[in-house]
Structures are given as structure tokens and as C-alpha cells.
Design a protein that fits this description.
By secondary structure, the protein is an alpha/beta fold. The protein folds into three domains: 61 residues, lambda repressor-like DNA-binding domains (434 Repressor (Amino-terminal Domain), Orthogonal Bundle); 130 residues, 3-Layer(aba) Sandwich (Rossmann fold); 137 residues, Response regulator (Rossmann fold), CATH 3.40.50. Helices cover 42% and strands 17% of the residues. It has twelve helices and 14 strands. A six-stranded parallel β-sheet has the order 4-3-5-6-7-13, sandwiched between helices. It has a four-stranded parallel β-sheet with strand order 9-8-10-11, sandwiched between helices. Strands 1-2 form a two-stranded antiparallel sheet. A hairpin with a 2-residue loop joins strand 1 and strand 2. Helix 2 crosses helix 3 and helix 8 runs parallel beside helix 9. The chain is elongated. It starts with 9 loop residues before the first strand and ends in an 11-residue tail after the last strand. 45% of the residues are buried. The N terminus is likely disordered. It holds the Pfam family LacI. One of its GO terms (molecular function) is transcription cis-regulatory region binding. This is LacI family transcriptional regulator.
Length: 348
């Protein structure tokens, strides 16, 4: 059965207006109405103006759901994300949503409370909604999910995550080299008792940042004072900092695996331990969210280029929806942004 993609939406003489009603009032063909409301379709400016004026008078809107049956595309992109309390991911989701809207696409967001929780059931729901593609941010995928989406012909792009061996497109920043730069910088300021509060080690970001940091310390001839888990959670980051400052040998610098954790650690050091930043202990983070530049923190951090990462993600998924691109893996270089939280040499 062929569905009228501009099916009944509004009322005309007690009945919902259709594209036929709009065409009759505008004095054009029904196909002209269809082209007017289809992005990228060819229609003259004069005809489009007449159609839109008629549609407004009738209170008519095209039936997007019906259109998807005819085109085979819903124009909906599924996004599954965790850690939304982190400023980095809230900005990322907003930026992704804006870019998709510019392409005439819409975003359907599902939250995974923990990095791997509900991902399988969420993908089931995405398949029920017949999304055109899936973006995962801050969550990982298993082979079963990947195979199901591949069988359904639904492209997947992992944003800010990577997984070895997966036939899934990825867009990440170079977490390894960024963390390595942090270690070199802290060493260059004379710090030698350098600790690390790491992100979740079940995520590529956490693993790569820790590995890069250790490589940078080794290059500088420094052994890490301690490595503790923060799991990208404020409370766990504070607990890790508390452990560090209960030891006999105190750190003179800490690399924290994300800005979100770093802010909590800085507040703990200043207001509970009573030490000065950077005079007593230097702090560096990762992400460069807007709060990092505030006078309250002035946090040295690694800038993840969200705009570039999102643009690459949208370019990959739109190309794969159009079936003009294969699986792609993109890694983007980061920049170290030095601010007051690590400024100056260590006080000996």
C-alpha cells in the first residue's frame, strides 16, 4: 500500500487537510507540493511560495512518518550516550544535534546510566524506530550488537571511543599523545612526585590517556608516584585524591583523566586539604570544557576539538547512509592548553 507522505495533518471542513487540498488551493500539482516540502527537491521559488502560503492557511504539515515508508529513510539518527553529567558530553550532544539538524536529520537520544548498561536493549529500540544510523558516545559495543546492526544495514559511528578489530567507524582524538604532552609539561616545571587519577579503564579514552601519561613520564625519567582510579566520576575522583593526601609522600602534581574530575579534585585540595594550586600541587585535566578557563580554576588541560570531531562524525554517517563510504577510523590531534593550575616551577 502506498502511503500519502503528505497525509492528513490539519482540518478542512471538519477533515484533516491533505496535500491534495494544498495543491488545489495553491493551484499547483500534488507533486509540486511534495517537492516543496522535500529538502533538496527542485521547485521554483514562486511555486514554493504559493504552496507554503496555502499550507499555512490550511494549517497543513507534511507527514514525516509516512514519508519514511516511501523513501526507506526516517531521517532519524540514534544516539546512545553515558556520562551526560560531564560538561564535555553535554556540549558534544548539543553540537551533534545542531549539525544533524543542519543536514535535515533528527536525533533520538537514549541514556546508558553506566558505560555498558542497557546498550543492547537500546539498540533494539533503535531498530524498532528504524533509525538511519547510530552514534555511540562514551559507550562501547560488543560483537553481537555490531553484527545485528550490520545485518540490518544500519551504520554505526563510535564518537570518542575506539575498539580494536571492530568493523565500526570511529572518530576519536589522540588521547595517547595528549596525555603524553601533559606528562612532559609537568616534568618540565620541575615536578617529580606526579600522580594520576585515571578515567575508567574499560574505555579506550581511559586506557590511552593512562598509557600516554606513563610513556611521557618514562621519557622524562620519572616514575609515577601513584595511579588511582577515578572512573570519570566526581565522588571517585575525590576519594582518590583523599587517598593521595593521606600518604606520607604527597604529590606535587596530579594529572586527572578529565576536566570534570579535575574540578572536584581542585576543590578538595584547596578547601579540604588547604593547599595552594599551583604553588603546592599542580593539576592538569583533559577535555578543555569552558569551565576550565574560568578564574575559579584556570585549569591546564588537553583540548578535545569537539566541533571537528562532530563534523567528521556527521560526514562519515551521512556518507554511509548514502552508501558511498566504507568503515572509517579517524584520529584527531589534540592541543595542550597551559593555564595557571600548572604555571611556574615547583616549589622545593
Amino acid at each position: 500500500m502506498y502511503l500519502n507522505e503528505f497525509g492528513p495533518e490539519s482540518m478542512v471542513n471538519g477533515k484533516r487537510a491533505t496535500s491534495i487540498d494544498v495543491a488545489r488551493l495553491a493551484g499547483v500539482s500534488q507533486s509540486a507540493v511534495s517537492r516543496t516540502f522535500r529538502q533538496g527537491a527542485s521547485v521554483s521559488a514562486t511555486t514554493a511560495a504559493r504552496v507554503r502560503e496555502a499550507a499555512e492557511k490550511l494549517g497543513y504539515r507534511p507527514n514525516i512518518i509516512a514519508r519514511s515508508f516511501n523513501t526507506g529513510q526516517t531521517k532519524i539518527i540514534g544516539l546512545v550516550v553515558s556520562y551526560l553529567e560531564s560538561p564535555f558530553y553535554s556540549i558534544l550532544v548539543e553540537t551533534l544535534s545542531r549539525r544533524l539538524q543542519e543536514k535535515g536529520l533528527h536525533i533520538l537520544v537514549f541514556l546508558a546510566e553506566k558505560p555498558m548498561s542497557r546498550v543492547s536493549s537500546i539498540v533494539d529500540e533503535f531498530l524498532d524506530y528504524q533509525v538511519d544510523a547510530i552514534v555511540t558516545a562514551s559507550v562501547s559495543l560488543d560483537d553481537k550488537i555490531t553484527r545485528r546492526c550490520e545485518a540490518a544495514g544500519i551504520p554505526i559511528v563510535m564518537l570518542n571511543r575506539s575498539q580494536q578489530g571492530r568493523r565500526v567507524s570511529e572518530v576519536t582524538s589522540d588521547n595517547y599523545s595528549g596525555a603524553c604532552d601533559v606528562a612532559r609539561h609537568l616534568a618540565s616545571t620541575g615536578r617529580s612526585r606526579i600522580a594520576h587519577i585515571a578515567g575508567w579503564q574499560g574505555a579506550s579514552t581511559g586506557v590511552d590517556r593512562t598509557a600516554g601519561f606513563l610513556a611521557g613520564l618514562e621519557e622524562s625519567g620519572i616514575a609515577p608516584l601513584a595511579i588511582l582510579g577515578g572512573d570519570y566520576a566526581r565522588d571517585k575522583a575525590v576519594a582518590a585524591a583523599r587517598t593521595l593526601f593521606q600518604e606520607k609522600t604527597l604529590p606535587d602534581a596530579i594529572f586527572v583523566g578529565s576536566d570534570y574530575m579535575a574540578f572536584a579534585v581542585m576543590d578538595y585540595i584547596r578547601f579540604e586539604v588547604g593547599l595552594r594550586i599551583p604553588e603546592d600541587v599542580a593539576i592538569a585535566g583533559y577535555d578543555d570544557v569552558p569551565i576550565a578557563s574560568w578564574k575559579s580554576y584556570e585549569l591546564t588541560t588537553v583540548r578535545q576539538p569537539i566541533e571537528v570531531m562532530v563534523d567528521k562524525t556527521v560526514a562519515i554517517l551521512t556518507a554511509q547512509i548514502a552508501e558511498v563510504a566504507e568503515v572509517s577510523k579517524v584520529k584527531i590531534r589534540n592541543d595542550l592548553v597551559i593555564r595557571r593550575s600548572t604555571a611556574g616551577d615547583a616549589i622545593r
